[in-house]
Structures are given as C-alpha cells and as structure tokens.
Fold these 2 entries.
Entry 1:
Amino acid sequence: MIKLRKKNLLRFNLKKIKDKKVVVRVDYNIDYKNGKISDKFRLTSTRETLEKLKIAKSVILISHFGDPQGFDSFYSFKNVLPQLQKILKLKINFLEDFSSKPLGKFNLLENIRFFRGEKEKDINLAYKIKDLGEIYINEAFSVSHRDHTSITLVPKLMTTFYGLRFEKEIKMLNEFLKLKNLTLILGGAKISTKLPLIKKFLKKAKLIILGGGLANTFLKAKGFNVGQSLVEDEILDEIKKIDSKNILTPIDFFTDKGYRKLNEIKNDDKILDVGFESLKIFLKEISKNKNIIWNGPLGYIEEKKYINGTYELAKNLIKFKNKKILIGGGDTISFLEEKKLLKKFKFISTGGGAMLYYLAEETLPCFKNE
Ligand code: 3PG
Ligand code: MG
C-alpha cells in the first residue's frame, strides 16, 4: 500500500508553485459521442487542483485523448476545447505543439499521444515536457497505471507533486484495501485485465460477483455453452485452475435472441446482459456484506436494450444506506453519470484500469523508484 508523503503532495507544497511555470498531467481522456463530452467526472475532478494553481505564473495542461496512432482530428483537443472550458469554468488557451507560445494563465497542449514517444518512454519527449515549466504535477491518477513518458519519465526530471484528486484516490483505495466483509463486483468485457485482482481478492473478499462479458469466459471455462458470446479463449486454461467457491456468476441472461437460462443457451446465441434471476441472487448476496467494490458494467450497455442489469444494480446499491460502496471504471462511471446516479455515491474512482491495478498491486508504475 502506498503512503504518500507530504513532500510529494501538492496540498503541502502550494507555496512552491507561487509565480512558477507549472506543467500538469491530467487525464482528459473523455467519452466523446456525437460531438458531446458525455462524462464530465474526470474533468471536474481536476477543478480543485486547477483552482489552487491560479497562484502559479502559468499552467500548461497535458493529457492524452483516445489512443490514436499519430494525428487524428477526432482526438484533437482543439475541437473539444470550447466544451472543456465550459465544464472546467476556465479560459484555456490551446497549444498546437511544443513551440506554441503559452497565453494567459491556463494552456492545454495538443493530445500528448500525437507526439512521438509518449507511449515508448522517450527521453527526448520527456525533456520537451520538462522545458515547458519548472514544476510538474501528476493529477492523472486514472492513467498512472501506464508506464508512459508523461507518467513515469518526466517526474524523474522535474520536481513533481501529486495533485489533490490523486491524493484522494490513493487514500480512498487504501481505505477499501483495509476493509473486511467485502463483495467485489466485476463486469466489463475482458477478464484478462481483471485476473490479477480476482486472484488476489479470492482470499481478501467474502464474495466475487462476475457479470458482463468477462463472466462468459469464466462460464465457458467451467464447461457451459455460451454460444457466440464474447470469450477470451486464450485464458480458459488459466481460469480452469481458479478455485471458484467464492465466485458467483449469472444463471440467466438476455441474449441477442431473447431471454435464456444458463443451460438453454444455444450455439448461435450471444449473451448481452444478465437476467432477473441472476440480479435477484446478486442483490441478496450483496446485502450480506458491509462493503462493496464495483468496477465494470454487467451487460453490453452500449446498446440501450442491454443496460438493465447495470442500471438495476446501480439503483439497488443506492438503497443500501449503511454500506460503503466504491465504484470505478470509465464505462461504469459515464453510464452512472448519464443516468444521473453518480452523485448518489460517495466513493467514486476516476480510474478504470488504474483502480484495478492499484487494488491488485497496491502500487502504480508512477511510484517506482520513488
Ligand atoms: C483510461 O481511460 O482508462 C485512461 O485514460 C487510460 O487510457 P488508456 O487505456 O488508453 O491508456
Ligand atoms: Mg478508458
């Protein structure tokens, strides 16, 4: 478990940024659909830090957006800047590249993944970022599981502090890591990325509930027919070895061909959501433990027809008034935001992969060699 030290936290070092040129790594990797930002949570989570940075001489924000291979106008910050400014309630100047001149207090550099070397840990790119300012701030918890230039290399070259939100994330996750009586609910497409966490929590949690695409792989490994459903065949053998007595999986589904019990699934069916019976059992079991961690949707929520499992779970979790509930995962958070349920939860992580990584490893690549 990482214990952040005062000397590394922005909160205790505000004096040091006064009148300085500050570079801030944020994670503005937003969900951008039909010309609109659909998840504001990651953006608004940086507001507190940005507010504090008003005492700096100038601020340059750095972020990735999507995972483009070189320039791709869809992922340019230039297009989304008007919306970003509105959500952040800040005037922000756009910097096309490293030679653009900062203007005013807040500036946002073009998508850092457009520049060669961000994902390759490139020392030349790291120095270009360093030359932008005097102090670096990591306010990008949700991408700090990536061993990328702006996350792990630049902090070696510059005085670096962790932002207010970053600090909050680590505190929150540490708090949940210490809890007993825990139910872990995992959904989403891939089980491979969640396997380290599942293995660790087999001992730590009282119960692990699997839903969404990742449950298919698990069910197939246990010998059930899942038809044409999304499955990661390459890890079936690994899953077969898992002791599954504390793992609960769905027993009924909505497939592309309609409702099915687990043993009724046909070869050309595709599982797309959990069924009512499964939900009932899940909720009954969840009610028995005091604490809950949830990451990942229970169905293919990209399509309205298949949001029911995720939506019902969320609405029912809200009803548990005296449980401690931590929710994370990009898709889960943007779904809750869209359904106006997000604010009803107290512990929300901006991280998807980063949250899973930290819960499994109790550290992040950005802390290496600290
Ligand atoms: C995320 O959305 O999970 C983070 O911003 C990291 O993005 P990545 O998965 O493209 O590295
Ligand atoms: Mg994501």
Note: Residues 27, 29, 67, 142-143, 146, 330, 352-353 surround 3-phosphoglyceric acid (ligand 1) (CB under 6 Å).
Entry 2:
Amino acid sequence: MQTVTVDLGPRSYPIHIGSGLLAESSLWTPHLGNGQVMLVTNTVLAPRYLAPVHAALGDWRVETLILPDGEATKTLATAERIWDALLAARCGRDATLIALGGGVIGDLTGFAAACYQRGIDFIQMPTTLLAQVDSSVGGKTGVNHPRGKNMIGAFHQPRCVIADLDTLRTLPERELRAGLAEVIKYGLIADAPFFDWLETNLDALLDRDSRALTHAIAVSCRTKAAIVAADERESGVRALLNLGHTFGHAIETGMGYGAWLHGEAVATGMLMAADLSARLGQLAPAEADRIQALLTRAGLPVQAPASLDAGRFLELMAVDKKVQAGQLRLVLLRGIGQGELRADVDSRPLRVLLEQFPRGP
Ligand code: NAD
Ligand code: GLY
C-alpha cells in the first residue's frame, strides 16, 4: 500500500492506495466519528462492492442509498434525495457520508456532505481510475446545471480517500482509458519524466498491471496533493489542473452530459490546448505530436465533435469558471511538463484554432 498525504493543516488527510482496502476497516473506520454512517453508491457498484464495505463496518449503524448510474444523476435534485435520506434517518452533524463510486458519486456525495447542516464529514472510496487520480482528491464537490458543468458546488475536503485497486478490475475499458486522460494531464502540466514514463508504460496500464497502476495513481495523487496544498481554493496554481477542461467542459455540455465521458472530453481539450500553444509559438510542434500520439495510443478521442462549430464552442466556453471580468483564462503549455495559466490569449488565434481543429463524428 502507498499513502499520500494532502497537507492542509488541521484538515489534512491520507489517500491510501492498494489492494483489498475496502475491507481494511482499520484504515478508514477511525475517520467515521461518533454518529451514523450513510453509504452512497449506485446501481452498478452496489452489487459488486457494498458487501465488503458493509462487512468491514460490522455493528456500525449504517444507512445505504443506492442512486441511478450516470452523469445525468449529478444534479441538485439527486443531492436533495441524499438530504431527504439523511433527515429521514435523523442524522445529525456527527453523521458521516461514504461515497462509494466514481467521480459522479464522489462529487455529488461530497456536495451533499458540504451542505447538510452546514457541513458533515465524508469519506471518498473512489472506484474508477479517474476518481482515484483526480476527483476524490482536493475537495471540489458539486453538481451540474443544464447551463454548465459543475456550476453549483462547494469546497469540502474528505476525511480520507481509500483507493482500492481491486475495484479497477471490473471497470469498463472505455472508463479506464478516460481515467488515463487525467493521468496524462499530470505529466503535461508538471512532470515531464512522468510523461516519458507513461510513454514507456502505457501498455502495462492498459493491461491493468497492478505495479504500473499503483505507480501512476501514487504519482498523480502526489502531484495533485502538492498543488491543492499550495492553492486549495484555486486562486492560482490549482487552475493548472484544468488543462483541457475549458474546451472539454464545452464538449460535455454541448453534446449533452454523458455522451462524451469527462476524461474523453478532457483528452480532446488537452490536445486543443496543445495545438493552440503550438500555434502561439510556445510549444514545439514535435511535443504537440508526442501528446497526440500518446492520447491516440490510449484510445482517447483526438478530434472535436463535428456538431460543435467555433461559435458554439465560444458560447459554451464563456460559462467557464475560470472566466474573470469577462476574460477567458486558458491553461496552455510551454512544453511537456510545463502548464501555464494565460489570461491574455487573443480571441483571433483561439477562433482560428476552433475553426481549424480536426472534427470527427
Ligand atoms: P462515473 O462516476 O460516472 O463512473 C463511470 C462509470 O463507471 C459509471 O457507469 C459507474 O457506475 C461505473 N463504475 C465506477 N466504478 C466501477 C467499477 N469499479 N467497476 C465497474 N463499473 C464502475 O465517472 P468518473 O469518470 O469516475 O467521474 C466523472 C465525474 O467526475 C464527472 O462528473 C467530472 O466532472 C467529475 N470530476 C470531478 C473532479 C473533482 O475535482 N471533483 C475532477 C475530475 C472529474
Ligand atoms: N480537477 C480539477 C481540480 O481538482 O482542481
């Protein structure tokens, strides 16, 4: 097992990464407090992973809420279902929520925890690669709004993160590949040697080799933990974690939530950011080619959807959370391993990129 700490003073917490951790109650029951426990999961995960967690909880008084699957579930209406269940079970401020699932369950449950009685504890048990390397770490919680992805939310850190590698065995192939997009992101924004390592070890990751996965998850979490510790509320460096997300969120919202997986949209978005960086002369075209090659090998989309023209992209991108005083801020690259937040990108090269970037189905 590897443990990475997110260092946030009194709100610091461990991320445990390894096999069989859902059943390792000594790792996470100390973070449950004294009150009731409510497990939130979905219809896909409940039959597979509720049993070991329930068994580990022994005599604990546990409520379980099983939600529908999918990105379309990440709404305020579903958060209300969690609050209803907490109230029906007479849960107080000492209750703890456990999010057992991917980023959808984690974001939603974390948001419900942030708001219930002005904030209760929660634990993340991420079961997708994407959630293990990104969404379960750092305290961003929230739900989607029809007009924009993750537009309603709160910062609320978990008490601990339990990343059980065994859960990745049942993850559909497409979801594994989508998670790899966020793994590649860490190499691109901050860690050139890790990008090199990914080029060498991508096949092992696609084969779900435990050693390769443990290394990739631990390196990703270490980078994310350092960035979050430096800038918890995203007033600066944390924005780098959004490489590809301004374009990606436009794709997700424009295509309807769930049509493109988050990681797929981020992959295309990262390539759009690399292409723009190259057009602006700050990224060598050969490096943009390496990025495209790695994303392609990972089976991720490298073309934007044909149905989103430049005008529609710009309209959707204007809703991005990084917009300040009407100015779009974009994460670009100065090289592999060197992300950069820019607020001064001229609208002309951006429009040219959006018009000329390759389109697929
Ligand atoms: P997800 O939660 O929808 O899970 C993907 C699919 O895999 C679902 O159908 C799920 O039921 C299934 N699944 C999950 N674990 C499984 C397993 N072990 N075996 C079999 N099936 C399994 O999607 P995701 O990619 O985990 O998360 C995407 C969400 O995360 C998006 O809403 C995105 O906005 C959010 N996100 C949040 C942050 C953050 O910092 N909070 C960061 C990145 C992404
Ligand atoms: N996924 C972006 C962040 O956590 O800041």
Note: The chain is about 45% helix and 20% strand.
